[in-house]
Structure formats: structure tokens, C-alpha cells
Amino acid sequence: MSPIPILCLPYAGAGATFYRGWPAPPAGIELVPLQPAGREERYHEDPYTDLESAVADLSKLAAPYAEAGPYALFGHSFGAILAYELARALPAAGLPAPGLLVVSGSAAPGVPLGRHSAGLDDEEFVARVEQLAGYVHPALADPDLREVVLPVLRADVDLHESYRPADSEPLPVPVTVFRGAFDHLVTEEDCRGWADVSAKGCSQVEFEGGHMYLAEDPLPVLRAMAELVAARPLPERL
């Protein structure tokens, strides 16, 4: 049996390299990082300015995996919102729904974030993002890389802060919520609403660490994803 692909969406401003640098996952799953426009090998493309464009573009990247057999979706922070919207968009386009949606470090859709960071000047914006996330994006320390990363980060943060779900119909997909136990940005209460987005059940797993717990140690995350797939077997891929 081939491993189940976990299509991974990065947090605001990040690219697929975040996941590409992780250790090899346990047997049964493989990580497939999806690369949003405007970063890394797609740096020559404009970042997304609206969620519809983002989901349409990422759906094209996800479609071959959805067509090939069972798959799951995973996203952290803003990436969790993108994964959730992909879980809606792919079936709407006539493609199979994911067998599992794993959202990490994110309030449930419809929970207002209560912050407006995108309009700040560069120094204030970077300081605000670092304060909120408890994490310093490595590229922001390099003046040359900062010029490349900052417009993408601003665009993502603006989309995240202005996000409002267009559809509240529960997904026919089981949802699991990952959260750092000491996440000051996303509370346990913020996550409870994820139970309302699934008609197939919702569970929660906590990890040691804060909002960016998975950057500190991805191994527990990989093990948890493999355990989820093993506990809720998706149909075999031929």
C-alpha cells in the first residue's frame, strides 16, 4: 500500500520549504508541501490579494493528489484556513473530499482575530507579527531577503485578518485540531468552534510549546498525523 499524502499549507509568509526540511515521516504517510504563489520557486508571481484566488490556485496544485486516491489536508495558522477552504473547494469542483482535515494553531472559522496588523509600517508590522507568533521568521533578519518576504507576509496577514467564511455547511470530513499547549495567540476556546465545521467528528491534540510549537520539534506532529491515519484508515491507494 502506498503512503497517504498529507497536503501541507504553510503559515503566513512561509513557503513549502518549511515542511521540506522536516524529518522523514513515519510509515503510512508522506508530506506533500503545496507552494503558494509569491515565494521561493514562485517568487516571481504576485502574492494572493483575495482568498478566492488563493484557493483556486492551490486547488490546481492539490487536484492531481485528490484525483489519484485518498489524501489528507494539513495547515498551520493561516495555512489552516487555506486547508479548510480547500476541503470545501475541491469537492465543489467535482473532486473527492479529503479523508481527513488537520488544522493547527488556528481559531475556528468565524472567530474574529481582533487585530489589524497589515497597515502598520514595516518596523511596526514585523514587531507585531513576531510578538503575536512568538517566532522570528529567519528571512526577516536579512535585509535582502526581507524585501522579498515582507510583501508576501503582509498579503497573507491581511487575508488572514480579514477572513470571514462564506459557507457554514458542515464538511463531510473528520477534523482534528492541533494546538500548542501554551499558545497565547490561539486559545483552547478559540478552537472549540472547529467541531461545528465537521459532520464527521472533531478531535483535539495538544503539544508542548507555543503558537509555533511545530517549528521547535516537528517529530511529535509527524507521529500524531501517522497515528490519525492509522486509527482512521483511509481507503487504500493502489
Largest sheet: 6 strands, parallel
User: CATH fold name, please?
Assistant: Rossmann fold
**Order of strands across the biggest sheet?**
2-1-3-4-5-6
Q: How would you classify the helix and strand content by structural class?
A: alpha/beta
Overall number of domains? 1
> What level of helicity do the residues show?
25-40%
Helices and strands, in N-to-C order? EHEHEHEHHEHEHH
The fourth-level CATH homologous superfamily is: Alpha/Beta hydrolase fold, catalytic domain
The appropriate CATH architecture is: 3-Layer(aba) Sandwich
What is the mean predicted local confidence, pLDDT?
A: 89
Per CATH, the class reads Alpha Beta
User: How many runs of DSSP E, i.e. beta strands?
Assistant: 6
Pfam families: Thioesterase
Keywords: Hydrolase
GO molecular function: hydrolase activity
Family: Belongs to the thioesterase family.
